[in-house]
Structure formats: structure tokens, C-alpha cells
Design goal:
alpha/beta, 2 domains, 6-stranded mixed beta sheet, two-stranded antiparallel sheet, 32% helix
């Protein structure tokens, strides 16, 4: 998380929390590798959902998160969590089997009124029913969702699934959501697909300009999303390009006719040969 963000200058440093010891140490090491002074970051170890450790530093202007996909958490087994200021606004807790929206609501709570949050998500959270739909409806009705970006498959080590980026903001001026299908924006490597600079530029340019491009992006009114039962799957709004070969039926029919003529001619020749053999 970045406390203050303006013209690519970070005023008050980086803040983060990680429960896994290995990832916690890697995050701290990453700060040093990028020449971030020890005084300019605060990365703490702990359970983000149950014991958030940066309450005093919030809100944040830029939040980036890649939480574990659809892991279990305590959920409504702890009745006090529904009163937590992070989860209470939606009126529903994320299901115990899927903590995705708990992480999303946490990020939203820590987001400033002028900031943006970008969260890497499992695609299923955009169409699943039950409590997740209730929370999704809350986010849509309150105009917090800015954009959903479908990423290519096989981008991350350890999983081949195609993930998405959910972008949230609290200062939107239009009741619309941008959907970008970037599933084809990648370069194939030996073991993983990668995003090249040109792929990233294409995504960022469309995010900024919102021009709408066929088979790539659509800027959708909230009313249409409500009609689709609050479904936020990119494929619901951005049509996939049909890359199958276009067949000219007239040409195909003529080719079949020619083939049939050749077969008939060949059959006649075979019949003549058989007849000659029978006469001998």
C-alpha cells in the first residue's frame, strides 16, 4: 500500500501485511532491492482479515493486492466480524469457504477517497451466487467498482488459471464499469506467458481513455449489469472474436459437386474393370 501518491512520488512510504513467513521476508527483501530505505516502509506479519496491523496509517491512495484465491477463513463462525467496520457496510460476510470478498472489503475500507485499489482475483468471484453476490451488489450499487480486467492464463508461477484484476475507486463520476479482455495480450514463454511492455501499454491506454474497442473493451452502464444479475464476468460484456475460418458455402458446395463427379467417374472405371475380369 502507498500512503500518498502524486506524480509517481511516494510521500509516506510503503505499507503491507503478510501472514506467510516466506512471503513476508521476500516482501521486505524486495524493498531493499528497490532501494527503499528501512524508514520508508512498514511491512508487518499477521492475519490481514482477523488482525489488521495498519489501522492507524490508513487511508491509502494506492493499494495493490494479490490475496490467495478462494481460501477458507473464519467468516460467520465469528459473529463479531459482521460488526467490523471493514465488513459491516455490505451487510454480509464472505462465505467461510471463499475469503475473496473479505480481502476486497478490507482493501476498500483502507482506500482513500481519491485513491485506487487493484486486486488480483479468481474469476469465479464475479458470478458466484449467495453471499458473494450480495457483496458484489453492494459494491456495484455504491459505484465502487471501476474496472475488471481479464488477464491471460498461465501468468503466475504455480497456477495456470486465467486471473482478473479488480480495480476499485471511491471518486467515480459515472455509473459505469469498464471491462477489458486482455486474455490475448501476452507473449508465450517456455513455462509461462508474460506481459510485454506493449501488452501493458495497450491495457493501460484503454483504462485511461475508455474508447471501447471491439473484442477488447466495453464501458458498461450499471443498468445493464443489474439486468445481468450483477454478473461482472468480462466475457458477459466483451464479445470474443470468432477466429474460425470463414467458409463460403457456395464455394464449398461447388467443391463437393466436383468431388462427387470424380467419385462417379472413378466408380464407373472400376465397374468397367470388374466387368472385363468377369468376362475372361
Amino acid at each position: 500500500m502507498k500512503k500518498q501518491f502524486d506524480e509517481h512520488i511516494i510521500d509516506e512510504g510503503f505499507f503491507g501485511q503478510e501472514i506467510n513467513m516466506t512471503n513476508f521476508n521476500l516482501a521486505r527483501m524486495n524493498m531493499f532491492l528497490h532501494n527503499v530505505n528501512y524508514n520508508n516502509f512498514s511491512i508487518k506479519r499477521g492475519d490481514t482479515l482477523i488482525s489488521p496491523l495498519h489501522r492507524d496509517e490508513k487511508p491509502f491512495d494506492a493499494i495493490v493486492s494479490n490475496p490467495p484465491y478462494s481460501i477458507k477463513w473464519v467468516g460467520d463462525a465469528d459473529p463479531t466480524l459482521i460488526n467490523d467496520e471493514r465488513f459491516a457496510p455490505a451487510g454480509k460476510l464472505a462465505p467461510k469457504s471463499y475469503a475473496d470478498y473479505a480481502f476486497i472489503m478490507h482493501s476498500l475500507s483502507y482506500l482513500s477517497s481519491k485513491g485506487r485499489a487493484a486486486i488480483v482475483c479468481f474469476p469465479g468471484i464475479f458470478y458466484r451466487k449467495g453471499a458473494e453476490k450480495t457483496i458484489r451488489q453492494y459494491l456495484i450499487e455504491n459505484n465502487f467498482i471501476d474496472c475488471v480486467i481479464q488477464l491471460p492464463e498461465n501468468l503466475f508461477f504455480g497456477t495456470s488459471i486465467a486471473t482478473c484484476i479488480l480495480v476499485m475507486a471511491k471518486n467515480k463520476t459515472e455509473n459505469k464499469i469498464l471491462f477489458i479482455d486482455a486474455s490475448k495480450e501476452f507473449k508465450k514463454e517456455t513455462n509461462n506467458n508474460i506481459l510485454e511492455e506493449k501488452n501493458i501499454s495497450a491495457i493501460v491506454e484503454e483504462f485511461r481513455n475508455r474508447t471501447e474497442k471491439e473484442y477488447f473493451s466495453r464501458y458498461v452502464d450499471r443498468a445493464e449489469i443489474v439486468e445481468n444479475d450483477y454478473n461482472l464476468s468480462v466475457s458477459t460484456y466483451v464479445e470474443k472474436e470468432d477466429t474460425r475460418e470463414v467458409i463460403d458455402i457456395k464455394v464449398l458446395n461447388k467443391e463437393i459437386e466436383e468431388t462427387v463427379k470424380k467419385i462417379d467417374k472413378l466408380r464407373a472405371s472400376i465397374n468397367e474393370i470388374v466387368k472385363e475380369l468377369e468376362d475372361e
